[in-house]
Write a structure and sequence with these properties.
The complex is a heterodimer of chains A (about 300) and B (about 280).
Chain A: E1 4-15, E2 18-29, E3 33-37, H1 44-51, E4 59-64, E5 67-68, H2 69-78, E6 80-83, H3 95-104, H4 112-121, H5 137-149, E7 155-159, H6 167-182, E8 187-191, H7 195-201, E9 204-209, E10 212-218, H8 219-224, E11 228-235, H9 237-247, E12 254-256, E13 260-265, H10 270-279, E14 283-291, H11 293-305
Parallel strand pairs in A: 3-8, 3-9, 6-7, 7-8
Antiparallel strand pairs in A: 1-2, 1-4, 4-5, 9-10, 11-13, 11-14, 12-13
Helix pairs in contact in A: 3-4
Chain B: H1 2-15, H2 19-49, H3 65-76, H4 80-88, H5 93-98, H6 101-104, H7 111-145, E1 150-154, E2 157-161, H8 167-192, H9 199-217, H10 248-275
Antiparallel strand pairs in B: 1-2
Helix pairs in contact in B: 1-7, 2-4, 2-7, 3-7, 4-7, 4-8, 4-9, 7-8, 7-10, 8-9, 8-10
Classes of the chains: A alpha/beta (about 300), B mainly alpha (about 280).
């Protein structure tokens, strides 16, 4: 059994009459990049805030590093680095001074050299002494990650770290997370709205909806039970449509553009498509198949709503 | 951890432009008062002493640095709470408004330690304000107006204090004035724990001071029982050091009431801040 880093059991939290989290449970193991998924208002941020003792849970058991956060808050936070929601800093201070301030209360001494090295690591070299007030959102995200990593924590909690970033920024942050896992063997809990990103970098995940956890497990295993999304470019389109409808009568097929067809198909049936179309002398120009966490996510959430 | 956190708070206070408003305002106001008294101080003084000239004769430099300092303190110690609250009212709520509280509270520092460090930093800032006021009033007063015996007009009449008997009274008076301002700082920090924006605690602090001052000055019997316990009643108790004989009981009572208020506000702050959900 791998070492448990985060264990949340039956967490609940209400704000007045509104129950933000009803029954969230999940477990993160050492070395995981753990995806924390859920639609807006599902209770992700509230769960993360409870986990980091920013807010007090009404009930449930929260253990990090096998210690209850209730009684071992400081010990746990010394081993944890986090960004909750957007990274906000003292705008009137420089990037260096912000890190210096947070390093001082992180429980581990960070020298000037280490702070400069960390700023360099996140790509903020040359901007160390600029006031954060003038930073773009992407630069603040990088600085947020720098403050998360500076005290060399074992667990990193990132709440939607790519929100508001440009495509290059998203790639940079994604690569940074992968480097943290591969080169530094960190355990990472990552909430994100970008489901494809979770699919790309997380090995395990939990989906929560309306304050409850719905499904938890390995991303690969959860995805392997799912249909694949298929996009075909064929000619003639109409003939291909008829052949496929006969072969897979229960599957809805969408006609897109002049030569494209789109549908979902069980993974095991995908190899038969080319044989089938070739046998009817239908030309295949391209066959694209991919797992869609997005589809899976929507399906799971919709099932939960019923 | 407390020491490190206090150091952090000093860095933040020193970097905020609003922290220099107090120092700047005191410099400007004292400068204006010194200029006005240098220009027309003698006529103001003769207006005060004229009612006593039939029975007393005044000799020497009456308009001296000691009197100037007294006038300045009397004028400014009413406005200075606002300058203190401008900084201390922002200490907790400013972190919420900026969102930095989320990062600070995910660090291994207890809420009590953070609050205490802010209180200590606020107290040091308040001390700086009082010390600067003292330097401006006493030292610049003496530079421009020289020194001499201090004549103070009280409700009981004139009190004349000899030159060598004045400095310790000022130092003690500043210490009590510091306690009064620290009470204001504690109140604003306390209110800051209830708010997530900076303006609210500052306005609320001033509103409470104005309300308590009105209650304290209204000659209505219904307030007689509470008036002695309002901290605003004791904010001017620094003046007791310029009475003769020294009203020791009054001074001790004022100190106890101010310290009790500071502890009360600090206690409420700790309870509130420790219970507060950080959902900013």
């Amino acid at each position: 059994m791998p070492e448990s880093i985060i264990s949340i059991q039956h967490l609940s939290k209400s704000f007045g009459t509104f129950q933000a989290v009803k029954d969230v449970s999940f477990q993160v193991f050492k070395g995981d990049v753990f995806g924390f998924l859920g639609p807006n208002g599902a209770g992700k941020s509230t769960s993360m805030r409870c986990m980091l003792s920013l807010i007090k849970a009404d009930s449930g058991d929260i253990r990090l590093f096998d210690l209850p956060i209730k009684n071992h808050r400081e010990e746990i936070l010394r081993r944890t680095g986090s960004i909750v929601e957007k990274p906000d800093f003292y705008k009137y201070l420089s990037a260096y001074r912000n890190l210096d301030i947070f390093a001082r209360i992180s429980g581990t001494y960070s020298s000037k050299k280490e702070i400069y090295a960390m700023l360099d690591f996140v790509g903020l070299n040359g901007r160390e002494h600029d006031k954060v007030g003038g930073f773009s959102h992407g630069m603040k995200q990088r600085l947020g990650i720098a403050q998360t990593l500076l005290h060399n924590p074992d667990l990193i909690v990132l709440d939607e770290p790519t929100t508001g970033l440009d495509p290059q920024g998203i790639i940079d942050i994604r690569n940074l997370i992968l480097r943290l896992k591969e080169e530094h063997q960190k355990t990472i809990l990552l909430s994100s709205h970008d489901l494809s990103e979770i699919e790309m970098i997380a090995n395990r995940m939990v989906i929560i909806n309306k304050g409850k956890s719905i499904v938890e497990g390995s991303v690969k295993e959860l995805m392997s039970t799912e249909n694949l999304f298929i996009r075909l470019e064929v000619e003639p389109q109409q003939k291909a449509l008829e052949v496929l409808k006969n072969a897979f009568p229960d599957i809805p097929i969408q006609v897109k553009g002049e030569n494209q067809l789109e549908f979902h198909l069980n993974r095991n049936q995908v190899p038969s498509i080319s044989q089938l179309l070739n046998s009817h002398e239908i030309a295949i120009y391209s066959l694209e198949s991919k797992r869609s966490l997005e589809d899976y996510f929507i399906k799971i959430v919709q099932q939960d709503a019923i | 951890m407390l020491f490190k956190s206090v150091y952090n708070e000093f860095i933040k206070i020193a970097a905020k432009p609003r922290s220099y408003l107090g120092i700047g305002a005191i410099t400007l106001l004292v400068g204006v008062i010194l200029f006005a008294l240098k220009s027309d101080g003698l006529s103001i003084l003769s207006f005060v002493t004229s009612s006593f000239e039939q029975t007393l004769s005044f000799e020497g430099n009456l308009l001296n640095g000691n009197l100037i300092a007294f006038i300045i303190l009397q004028m400014l110690l009413v406005q200075i709470p606002l300058l203190v609250a401008l900084v201390t009212g922002d200490l907790i709520s400013g972190e919420f408004a900026m969102g930095t509280i989320r990062i600070v509270m995910t660090k291994p520092i207890s809420r009590t330690t953070l609050l205490l460090s802010k209180f200590i930093a606020g107290a040091v800032y308040t001390a700086c304000i009082i010390i600067w006021l003292g330097i401006m009033a006493l030292i610049f007063g003496r530079i421009f107006f020289g020194t001499g015996d201090l004549i103070v007009l009280n409700t009981d009449g004139l009190v004349i204090l000899q030159e060598h008997d004045v400095l310790w009274r000022y130092l003690s008076g500043f210490a009590v004035a510091f306690l009064a301002l620290l009470t204001v700082a504690s109140l604003s920090i306390c209110l800051s724990c209830f708010s997530e924006n900076s303006i609210g605690p500052i306005v609320a602090t001033m509103s409470i001071i104005i309300l308590f001052t009105i209650i304290g000055t209204l000659e209505v019997s219904v307030f007689d029982s509470i008036r002695p316990y309002l901290f605003t009643t004791h904010m001017a108790s620094w003046r007791n050091f310029f009475e003769e004989p020294l009203p020791k009981t009054e001074i001790i009572k004022s100190v106890i009431i101010l310290v009790a208020h500071i502890l009360l506000f600090l206690g409420i702050s700790m309870y509130t801040f420790n219970k507060k959900d950080i959902s900013a």
